[in-house]
Amino acid sequence: MSPPGDNKSHRSVTYEAAMTESPTETRAASRPLIGTGLIALAAGFNLAYAGLVWAYEYPAILRRPAAEALALYAQGGAGLTALWHAFALSAFLLIPAACAISLERGHLVRQPGLAVSAAITGALAGAVQAAALWRWVFALPPMTGADADPLQAAFAFDLLNHYAGAGLGEHMGQLLTALFLVQCAALQAGARARVLAVLAALSAALIALGTGESLSLALGLADPGFSLATIAGFAGFSFWLAGAGLRALTGPRVPPAA
């Protein structure tokens, strides 16, 4: 058995070691968590999207009559609602993801203003798109109930679809996402992550171009292909997220302070 004084000394040394751990060491330890989280977010977003394509004919269903969209939603039941919740949650998780990518130590050292601005923009993009998507979870189910009036339900669906869906999610949310990607492209170019920077810039251009679909619908014009730009842009965004995750897992480490 060790003398009481030895235990006290050991506890003191352990406490002092914990208190003197450098911020660099803490950040290095968090890189695997950040990298894994970004890759998981990219995969989860695409799995939820694929599930909605299969179960709800998304996104084509958004341009069909309200009665048809509501009937198909009712057929999907709780499983479809859960898919929408997962999809909205993937948008919401862009908030911490944007902060993790933008506020990387190197970005804060080289371009602190741009790093903080990118974190704020990315967080806003995630919040706006999640709020728009959660209408499918919390507003749509009552419209498909047995007691719902078909005409009132169709009117409410169209109103939500045009404002929350097209206006907030597909327009404001996508513009914020594109701006976030442009800011990250500038940060990553400065960090010599040129492949990621180029991918971010291309994805931003496609996502911004895709906002023309909602504007065309508001103006009563036909979509000349903006929806395809959106799909391609978010595909690029997914690869960029996964690439940022891989960089966090395998990229160069900053050596701990002496």
Automatic annotation (TrEMBL):
Residues 1-22 are annotated as: Disordered. The keyword Transmembrane helix applies. The chain crosses the membrane at residues 33-56, 82-103, 115-137, 171-189, 196-219, 225-246. Keywords: Membrane, Transmembrane, Transmembrane helix. It holds the Pfam family DUF4386. The keyword Transmembrane helix applies. This is DUF4386 family protein. The lineage of its organism: Bacteria, Pseudomonadati, Pseudomonadota, Alphaproteobacteria, Maricaulales.
